[in-house]
Design brief:
Blueprint (H helix, E strand, L loop, with lengths): L1 H19 L8 H4 L9 E7 L10 H14 L3 E5 L11 H18 L3 E4 L12 H8 L20 E6 L7 E7 L17 H17 L6 E4 L7 H4 L1 E3 L6 E3 L2 E4 L9 E2 L12 H8 L2 E6 L5 E7 L2 E5 L15 E8 L6 E7 H4 L4 H32 L1
Parallel strand pairs: 1-2, 2-3, 5-6, 6-11, 11-13
Antiparallel strand pairs: 1-14, 4-5, 7-9, 8-9, 10-12, 12-13, 14-15
Helix pairs in contact: 3-4
Length: 385
Amino acid sequence: MKTKKIFAVMLSLLLLFTVFAPAASAETKAEAAHLHFREDGTFRILNFSDIQDDETLSVCAAAFIRRAVKTYEPDLIVLTGDNIGGYSTESELETKIAIGNYMKIFEQLGVPVAIVFGNHDDQDTKLSKEDQMAIYDSYKCSISVDEGPDVDGCGTYNVPIFASDGSDKVVFNVWMIDSGTYDEENGGYDHIKQSQLDWYREKSASLAEENGGPVPSMAFQHIIVPEIFDALEKTDDAEGAIEWGGSYYKLPETALPGSILGETPCPGTVNGGEFEAFKEGGDVLAIVSGHDHVNSFVIPYEGIDLINTPTCGFSSYGNAETRGVRIIDLNETDPWTYETEVVTFETLMADDIVIMEFARLRDFFVDLWDRVKETFNKLKDMFSK
């Protein structure tokens, strides 16, 4: 009897503790990874964009990805969308194989991976972004997060980078933003939604409160923000410029050396207010996008750098001059600055004769096929008149 009374008292105390104990927020996979600056105060991000392949990953892309990771030894790999071409991976098995083709490389080399989705990842495939996120999470190296139904999209989360001393102080923060797929209401590409902005503002304020002020950060997403056309310079000279909305644009003089504007940027049809929210937050140094395969630039604009990383893939459009991977180097002693460069496929793989010949042959036949299609369409138009 006495034992039962003691047990009852202990159970009551446990229930009271459960009721009055402060609620603990669930730790995400990205937070649990506890990424931190190295002892020398450095941290390196390797950004691959638009792999956009199917279950048979291009030999050239696979070799390039592996060589880049082994050569530059990143602390974090970020994939900025169109990681697979959903239109050519229709079945669940094909999708799993397509994702596994590069995730197995990252897992084997032991580097944490954070991903966001693009407009092609779930295009015409039976697997939703949520289903695909579960595939990514089956790999130990994945620190990606499905934030749940309260935030629009799939894959809007943050990756904190902690101090080198092993403490819980967040020195730098990486925002991972799902920029959506297609705008079914307005046409064109999608945009950031209000729930995502609300999440960003709340999380940004929380990080600032916990770490003694705004935490310097960088945002990664697939589709570039509409402000890119404000950051570019209008020109009357069409030569060497891109056209949008009846006007011509070129890179401004403020663009970092080596910047390339190879095609017209393709932001969402609607401006969701993301750039302005980041400006108000005062913590975002740069927005890094993919999507536009042959653009490779860094353009400072109103305190935030607009960055485009070119494709590293070989199964969609791209060219030998720009196809590459972006390196971003951070420093713990000055986290409000960073260094970045794009290393091209031709530069990194120059000593691999077999892979280089594969790449040249691939580009030759793709160009030849494009010319054949162009000629066929011209002939069709001619005979239809």
